[in-house]
């Protein structure tokens, strides 16, 4: 009797727990649908060279000449700056004289070797004489090679006293004057490839900015006609002023009409990859990234879905990956969920 009463008590106690486990949790459930991701934004910036780089000597010395000024357009192959090359020129002359002497010694040694070989062939010479002549030839040959290498080194040192353009360039800045002493690698001029310009905009760090990479942008420069191009770069880091650098290449066929440093306006009006928008209350954080709880309609059980956030604003979060049309997503109440939890739409009669 006692045993039966005990079992009955356990059964009565378990029934409410089981009922609680099966009770669906009321939450907000929204159905997501893809919508166009429209971008309409205006920028103001300036025109810059697309690839500026320093012009510097490879050697140290006193500058004797800088033939260009800021803003000059310089054709390829031009010498635009020189160092005092007195010592380098003398070194080249000495190396040339040394090479000429080494060539003469090599010719003499070669003739002596050939003569010793002929004498040995006729029986009028000895093997030791040929061996000595061969050794003298090898020594002269090594001396000639050393002299040639020395001349090449001194000629490179002479070349290092000038700055020569490899491409058509534009001078952005002149940082030194004739008579100054500079070290190797010290910037003397700031240069850029001629005809390659870009528009640089400083944008607030706003939602959806990253989605503009590769989209069309219309550039307006002064009273000239607008030019359509693409946004080529959006910096992943903020500037010291808290803005984001946005760059767009100016088409080379129109670059001649644009001036470095002038103001340029940009207008983006485009439609990018469609997105699914979910309420802020749907967002959950996991160690693998942002996620939302989705509902299986047949069972009303929830599952955690990782997502990729495209942008966000006051209306909600735009999701570019992780959701598909018609999915049910939990909004308010998502903080109380776990994998497999049964839910129901809040406000429905139970």
From TrEMBL:
Residues 1-21 form the signal peptide. GO terms for molecular function: efflux transmembrane transporter activity. Residues 92-122 form a coiled coil. GO terms for cellular component: efflux pump complex. Keywords: Coiled coil, Signal. InterPro entries: RND_pump_MFP. Belongs to the membrane fusion protein (MFP) (TC 8.A.1) family. PANTHER family: HLYD FAMILY SECRETION PROTEIN, MULTIDRUG RESISTANCE PROTEIN MDTA. This is Putative efflux pump membrane fusion protein.
